[in-house]
Amino acid sequence: MEAHIAINRHRINVAMRLLPLSAINARDIGDTTPLLLAVSIKSYELVESMLRMPGLDVNAVSAGSLTAFVKCGRLGNLPLAQLLSRHRHIDINHDGDRNHQGYTGKACVHEAAANGSVHLIMFLIQSGALISTRDVNGWTPLHHGVANRRIAVIKLLLDNLSLPAIQTESLEGVTPLMLALELKYYEIARMIESKSPPLNHRVHMRLPPHQGAPLYGHGQYPARIQRQPMFPGQPWS
Questions:
Q1: Which end of the chain is less crowded, N or C, counting CB atoms within 10 A of the terminal residue's CB?
Q2: Is 162 helix (H, G, I), strand (E, B) or coil?
Q3: Would you put residue 85 in left (φ > 0), alpha (ψ -120 to 50) or beta?
Q4: pLDDT tens, residue by residue, 178-227
């Protein structure tokens, strides 16, 4: 616990002295490991030092889904992600503990897409990460990019995803294109449609006439679109 306290207080030198004397994977009252805390305070020096320590569980999960690498995605911290990726046991696709009640299924790429970390996603792609993986709600990184209006991230993902991956449906049956239309992000909808023709077996997407919709033609949303919940977990209308 002393090491956790030192890290939380940014006492890096003290923490580096304490860590070899304690369990490197010990958890505090918040179920957090020293490595996750070191990433949280963005201490490159401390993380680098810990990665050299024997017995380190670099993929340790906290609160059901959060690993040190996933935290890098949430923070949009490319240097720390690159540092962690050098560890021989790192799992860059780790999405948490499925048996934990706090499990979200979000990997680093989901978090990076949500906060618009283009360079981190580019690094993940180059490292062979799965960029079409789904979280507990069936959302892909592209869904998260659309929901948070991350234009640069969306473009990067569209350039690197297959057509089936672009058209992946969430557990509620919502594709990234449908989500963009529900949120009235018509610029994003056009970007996705240019890479992914509408699913003819489900519904033909069209923008409302007042938006001028040259890409989709005139007409209102089909009933299927109107009834879909906007975000995972919301009830159907």
A1: C
A2: coil
A3: alpha
A4: 999 999 999 999 999 999 766 543 444 444 443 433 333 323 333 334 43
Report the predicted TM-score, pTM, of the whole model to 2 decimal places: 0.80
Q: Is there a contact between 37 and 4 (Cβ–Cβ < 8 Å)?
A: yes
Question: CA-to-CA distance for 127 and 123, rounded, in angstroms?
Answer: 6
CA distance 128 to 142: 17
Residue 7 and residue 183: Cα distance in Å, rounded? 41
List, as own/partner pairs, every contact residues 49-52 make where C-beta atoms lie below 8 angstroms and the sequence separation is at least 24, other chains included: 49/16, 49/19, 50/19, 50/24, 51/83, 51/84, 51/86, 51/87
Decide if 96 contacts 70 (C-beta within 8 A).
yes
145-162: b or e for each residue (b if 16 or more CB lie within 10 Å)? bbbeebeebbebbbeebe
Which domains does the chain carry? 1-57 (1.25.40.20), 61-227 (1.25.40.20)
Of 44, 4, 45, which Cα lies nearest the Cα of 24?
4
